[in-house]
Specification:
Elements (H helix, E strand, L loop, with lengths): L1 H11 L3 H21 L4 H9 L13 H14 L2 H4 L15 H13 L5 H10 L7 H10 L45 H10 L20 H16 L2 E6 L5 H11 L5 E6 L6 H11 L8 H14 L4 E6 L7 H11 L10 E6 L3 H5 L5 H4 L4 E5 L4 H14 L9 H11 L3 H17 L7 H8 L13
Parallel strand pairs: 1-4, 1-5, 2-3, 3-4
Helix pairs in contact: 2-3, 2-4, 3-4, 12-13, 12-14, 18-19, 18-20, 19-20
Length: about 475
């Protein structure tokens, strides 16, 4: 009986293939749990790919692999997880030979105004066996982009079947080098406007090279002071204001100005995170891998905060009014991590005007009682609007007043002092003036902008 029992026990052990299917099923169940908590699928996949499966000494799987399993399970259930999943283009080489590459470049030269995505779709519809669009982009970036290097024609068509010229895209006889890139150059019309006005970049906008500045409103300066105090004392601060009042701009500008030897600012903008998602994204931003068990993740976070001492972690949650109650409760409990007298980190909650009222509810009462400072960003006053506009123009490289007084009055009334609406209107008015070859922005240009910016004051009648 003993040998028989041993054989039965051996048969009960899952095969490697079944064990892998069970592991995949466990991961899918974990993803479904996160999805039921309202976490976006992309965020679920990133979180699952950042930890080992099934145990801390297990194996890591990429987001693409997990996504394949997810859709296999959705399509065929557990059966879809038992076999090895394969991509639709499995076994097909992504490399491009010289003959195929020359044909692609020739077709791009013949159709210089047609986007590559459109050409690729057209070629596929006519039976051309080509690699993916990403492979073509990689190939084009690796070959010379001059016309002489890209003008070698090839009489044959790639793929199993050669097609006649009638099946190709409509030909444009203008010959241009195939300067195809995912990063497009500046619009030539906009570039002409900037040269005509003597501007370095488009005014009333911010980018990586031209970051935004703190607005001249008194409420913004007071909020900046409170943010400094909150970071120094590891407090909890509430920053509220209407949409477009400059909360995100103020926070990002303030974060960039923090002393890196004293503070470590972290900004989280995914307000749909669940309680477990908050922990995972926090660890990921700190460079740590989230653990399967919450207790293990807490130990990792506590150790990291100890290792970075005396640096103070400053956690900033944008759009905090959209966070579910369990996520905010998780953050509140993390403040007491380590059992120290001071909070484990400084916390800034930024949101709309009703954020404070929602925290007064009993479910958030514990977090509400920890708030040490509040700041409300007010709209720009009428006398501050002209200074704000002139500052934006000066940052773009033009040291003169370009707004007529009547145009400023219209902008102030239409925007009601909201910085985002004001900048959108001012930029649209500048574009209208530039298209009309004007050198100043006048009321008629603002009226044109009012028809383009729906957030503007609807009470104004346009001409």
């Amino acid at each position: 009986m003993a040998p028989r029992l041993a054989r039965v026990m051996q048969n009960d052990a899952p095969s490697p293939k079944s064990a892998l299917a069970l592991l995949r099923f466990e991961i899918i169940c974990h993803l479904k749990t996160l999805r039921q908590e309202g976490v976006p699928l992309a965020e679920c996949l990133r979180a699952a790919s950042s930890r080992p499966w099934p145990e801390p000494d297990g194996k890591y799987y990429s987001c693409r692999t997990l996504e394949t399993w997810w859709y296999d399970s959705a399509k065929s259930g557990y059966t879809g997880l038992t076999g090895k999943s394969s991509r639709a283009d499995a076994g097909k080489s992504s490399s491009i030979d010289e003959e195929t590459g020359a044909w692609i470049i020739q077709k791009i030269q013949e159709n210089p105004k047609t986007p590559l995505q459109v050409l690729h779709r057209h070629w596929q519809q006519h039976g051309h066996d080509l690699p993916s669009i990403s492979s073509i982009y990689r190939y084009l970036s690796s070959v010379p982009t001059s016309a002489s290097a890209c003008s070698t024609p090839s009489p044959t068509t790639p793929g199993a079947k050669a097609k006649s010229s009638a099946s190709s895209a409509p030909s444009n006889k203008t010959s241009k080098p195939p300067c195809v890139s995912k990063t497009q150059k500046m619009n030539p019309t906009l570039e002409a406007h900037l040269r005509a006005w003597g501007l370095r970049h488009a005014p009333f906008t911010a980018d990586g090279k031209n970051p935004a500045t703190i607005l001249p409103a008194e409420s913004h300066r007071e909020a900046r002071d409170l943010l400094d105090t909150t970071a120094a004392l590891r407090g909890v601060m509430l920053l509220t204001g209407a949409p477009g009042s400059g909360k995100s701009t103020l926070l990002k500008t303030w974060m960039n100005a923090l002393e890196p030897k004293r503070h470590l600012p972290l900004l989280i903008t995914q307000s749909s995170l669940s309680a477990s998602g908050v922990m995972e994204i926090l660890l990921a931003k700190l460079g740590e891998r989230p653990r399967f068990k919450r207790s293990a993740s807490l130990l990792v976070l506590e150790k990291h905060l100890t290792d970075i001492h005396p640096l103070t972690l400053v956690l900033i949650l944008d759009d905090a009014q959209n966070y579910p109650a369990p996520a905010l409760e998780e953050i509140r409990m993390l403040l007491g991590l380590g059992g120290q007298e001071r909070s484990a980190f400084a916390l800034v909650l930024a949101g709309d005007e009703y954020l404070l009222g929602s925290l007064r509810l009993s479910i958030q009462r514990a977090l509400f009682t920890r708030i040490s400072a509040t700041a409300v960003l007010a709209p720009l006053a009428r006398e501050q609007i002209a200074a704000h506009l002139n500052t934006q123009v000066a940052r773009a490289g033009l040291e003169r007043d370009i707004f007529e007084p009547a145009a400023i009055d219209l902008l102030a009334e239409a925007s009601q002092g909201n910085p985002r609406t004001l900048d959108l209107l001012a930029q649209a008015a500048w574009l209208a003036a530039a298209r009309g070859s004007a050198t100043t922005i006048q009321p008629e240009h603002v009226h044109i902008a009012l028809r383009q910016v729906p957030a503007a004051n609807a009470k104004l009648t346009t001409t």
